[in-house]
Amino acid sequence: MFKTLIFTIIFSDFLVSFWVTTDACYLYENHYATHKIRLEECDSDGYTTFNLTKADTLLVPKEDSKNFIINYYRTQEDAINNQQPILTYQNTIEGAQGNEQLHARITNRTTHEIHYHTIALYINYPPDIVSESIEILCDNIGTLLLDAGFNTAINASDYDFLWSTESTASEIQVTTPGLYSVLVTNKATGCSAYREIEVVSSGPAKTIQVDIDNRNARITVEGAGFYQFAIETDGVLSSYQESNVFSKLSTGAHTVYIKDSNGCLPIRTKEILIIDIPEFFTPNGDGINDSWQVDGLGADDMKNALIYIFDKHGKLIKQVVIDGSGWDGTYNGNPLPKSQYWYLIEFGNKKIKGSFTLLR
């Protein structure tokens, strides 16, 4: 039986191994390469598991790989002694910018010549982009520009872009709501990041209707957006609110403002008129609140206005003229009972309706 002993002498940049058998002695110069092999991975937090076999083609041409045995080790000593080989490695230094090194042992299957290489580990970070976002497509504009969502200024020529629309531009124009995505790849490192964008339709108010009950205004809006409301009185604009109701408004002219919560412009406005309408009257002949009449408006405001009074069954009780004395609580000269009555005021293309109480 033949026995083999191996002796290794380590010099500064190469190794000499003696293979001694019972019938021969072989001398090999086993080089330790002075340059380092750079093994790179992509990861966003600076820590990852390296698949060391990815370095195989960096050490030996792929077409020659069957002629070599390649093993990896944590230390130079393990590589020289061919002990504790590893296939993967989890870096312990964040980013691992060459500060962590492993060792490769390449053995020629035919000549048994051995070469050693240092493997320097590097982690490259993927493109710094916003991974998810919601963007607003204003229906009155019709187009929206989408970008890759970089958090810092970049040179677009350093990156490749592949959109879900198959565009390879750094930005795309879209005209319909929906889900869009882009894969951004750093040309230098090969690291990629994925961004998903939900495009939502919105827009300014298209139609506005204001219903006024006494001094309360309710605003009804049609449109693609979600809206906030404010009201201007005597040149002072209130804070915007989500409620579409304004209560206890002062008499006179007001301007209602309706804005899209998503920022689509313009802000819409509508003029409204709050009339001083009594909530009750007491026709008892004491000279106080003996008649019901709409007050607070000049002739120009209410030119050609018509005021109708109905009972709770919808029967027309009285038509009141603006410059008259109002309604005295009678029907055909007979006093009507204590009850709630309804009014309808029409002027121009406006209608105001509400109720009041006759007290006895």
What structural class do you assign from the helix and strand content? mainly beta
The first-to-last residue Cα distance is: 131 Å
Order of helices and strands: EEEEHEHEEEEEEEEEEEEEEEEEEEEEEE
**Gyration radius, in Å:** 43 Å
Organism: Aquimarina intermedia
Protein name: Gliding motility-associated-like protein
Pfam families: CHU_C
Report on the structure:
- By secondary structure, the protein is mainly β.
- The chain has four domains: 4-124, Immunoglobulin-like (Sandwich); 132-202, Immunoglobulins (Immunoglobulin-like, Sandwich); 207-274, Immunoglobulin-like, CATH 2.60.40; 280-358, Immunoglobulin-like (Sandwich).
- The chain is built from two helices and 28 strands.
- The chain has helices spanning 56-59, 76-81, and strands spanning 4-10, 14-21, 25-42, 49-51, 68-73, 88-90, 101-108, 114-124, 132-138, 144-147, 159-163, 171-174, 178-186, 192-202, 207-213, 216-222, 227-233, 236-237, 245-246, 252-260, 268-274, 280-281, 306-310, 316-320, 330-331, 334-335, 339-347, 350-358.
- Strands 1-2-3-8-7-5 form a six-stranded mixed β-sheet. A five-stranded mixed β-sheet has the order 22-28-27-23-24, with no helix packed on it. The chain has a four-stranded mixed β-sheet with strand order 9-14-13-11, with no helix packed on it.
